[in-house]
Amino acid sequence: MSDAATGRPVIDARKVGLTFQTADGPVHALKDVNLSVMKGDFVSFIGPSGCGKTTFLRAIAALEHPTEGDLRVNGMTPDEARKRRAYGYVFQAAGLYPWRTIAGNIRLPLEIMGFPKPEQDRRVKDVLQLVELEGFGKKYPWQLSGGMQQRASIARALAFDADILLMDEPFGALDEIVRDRLNEALLKLWAQTGKTIGFVTHSIPEAVYLSTKIVVMSPRPGRITDVIESPLPRERPLDIRDSAEFIAIAHRVREGLRAGHSYDD
């Protein structure tokens, strides 16, 4: 039975806290984070620099480990979910190996997981089509634009067909025109695949445009100051950003970011 059928959250955080021990003393990155993400949600995390957005995403991926509370991914600990390959992760930089072709980069996790060669070929072809990079499989990363490299990075994360896609500011370094195109492409990809997406961003318009749920976080220690369920339709042309509904949601996000400063140490 699926998580959607059981009503069980795909990602479930209960009073999650995370403290780093450093030479200068403890750093409280997260405090009392409570959040439920359901199957098929597109959740954006937004907040000031250092608020714990990326730390929380990394905790979901078992790249960091909470020091308080309970965090579950598909009903398992993040470590168990990682071993079962429950998610794909897209970093801020594309992180493609320059000596491998685009197809070779996408193929890498499939090789590590031991997929048969014909299955690797099929999956590489399918995800290249999904991110609209057909015909670029034999190119090397340096032959592609920054936006195309990020699409290749997304394809690599999709190749083994995990239910959850975690994305840490994947478009932050790109110019606005390219970013708009990739935002549109990501919504299309999300509609086609039905993935659950966790997306870190600094951009209020990007968070509002992409998300079914926007999680607003305070300065460190990161707390959730607001969770906004978007009333926007799932099909969203770029000009929806001029609508009264969009502007109202963006205003609420800004208010949540301002309110969060009252928590600041």
TrEMBL record:
Domain ABC transporter: from-to ranges: 13-244
Signal peptide as annotated in the record: none
GO molecular function, one term: ATP hydrolysis activity
Domain of life: Bacteria
Family matches, as CDD domains: ABC_NrtD_SsuB_transporters
Keywords: ATP-binding, Nucleotide-binding, Transport
Keyword hit for Transport: yes
Family recorded in the similarity comment: Belongs to the ABC transporter superfamily.
Protein name: NitT/TauT family transport system ATP-binding protein
Natural source organism: Cereibacter azotoformans
